[in-house]
Amino acid sequence: MNFIPYGKQTISQDDISSFIETLQSDFLTTGSKVTEFEQKIYEQSNAKYCVSVSNGTAALHLSALALLNKDDKVLTTPNSFIATANSILYANAIPIFVDICSNGSIDLELCEDMLKKDSSIKAIFAVSFSGKPLDQEKLQYIKETYDIKILEDNAHSLGIKLTHSDISIFSFHPVKHIATGEGGAIVTNNKALYEKIKRLRNHGQDNSHAMLELGFNYRLSDLSCTLGLSQIKKLDAFIEKRQDIAKKYDDAFKNTPIKPLYPYTDKSVYHLYIICIDFENIDISREELFKQMREKNIGLQIHYKPINKQPYYKSLNYGDESTPNMDKYSAQCVTLPCFPLLSTTEQDYVIKTLFEVLDV
Ligand SMILES: Cc1ncc(COP(=O)(O)O)c(C=O)c1O
Predict the structure, then answer these.
(1) Predicted pLDDT at 30
(2) Which of 9, 54, 57, 132 for a ligand 1 pocket mutation test, highest count of atoms within 8 Å of Cβ?
(3) What's the confidence (pLDDT) of residue 86?
(4) Which of 11, 85, 146, 348 might form a disulfide with 115, Cβ 3.0–4.6 angstroms?
(5) Is the CB of 84 under 6 A from ligand 1?
(6) Average pLDDT for the chain
(7) What's 272's DSSP letter?
(8) Is residue 221 in contact with ligand 1, taking CB distance under 6 Å?
């Protein structure tokens, strides 16, 4: 069996052909493909505006600059890629880590408790973790009741619609739902935010090239957008394939000590398929499981170690927050291979090998 990673892109001949066509055209950078791709992303997300950027981290950076002021307190999740919390620091604002709930996303009830106690909190940066949408009713209630800014980091969740948040961001890194090489996007319904973010993407210049503020070059190229346009046509099929894989894993793990992070739901777009194993009550450590699976050519991953316990965050005096759910989850989580090109034979092999190594 060839090596099976936890995630990878699906590139086919039509992607390659359209990429070559753009390569032979007059515009490799900011041409018509950028606008076309942005239109597809805002339509897909039910949003009014989209700004494409060079990666998901750039999307978070510009969003944080547009939404936050220096020293703003921002509630965020320890269970994400580091970029989510880092973006708050980029804006010289203050991340406050809140525990997660049973589906791996930030606990919005806890967020509300904190908002009740501290009226100086200005925003929530939440992640629709693994592809499962956040509770939109609760988000809307919180936004209206406490008058705060909400950013949804939907890097795991292309396909989810923008409803109540100020901004939602995406990543088009190859392990995500569609690949543009590196790539990202910001969607919003707020014209002022859209215009500010668009300016920040292009050195802080307006349409007549007057530089109004300090910005960046975070533009996504025509070449990348061409790939994105070709890929997004297949988004529904990609999501369906990921859901089929998730369902099959769920069925296989019934009546075993392997617990899916949440029961199968077609509301999740399954960027990640995660299981939890109580390693304290089983005869193998997670390190040993990873090692033995790797020897059998299967790549597993951990999503995530708590951001607040990263050495850099510890150096900023984070790490001692009370996050019992996150601590338990991060000791038990294992990400299994889940991507559209995973064949039935490969998935059967992953399941069989996992059972053998765990001796269940
Ligand atoms: C939740 C989350 N946010 C942000 C990012 C950053 O995206 P990018 O790698 O495109 O910069 C990632 C990437 O892994 C992510 O998983």
Answers:
(1) 86
(2) 57
(3) 98
(4) 146
(5) yes
(6) 97
(7) -
(8) no
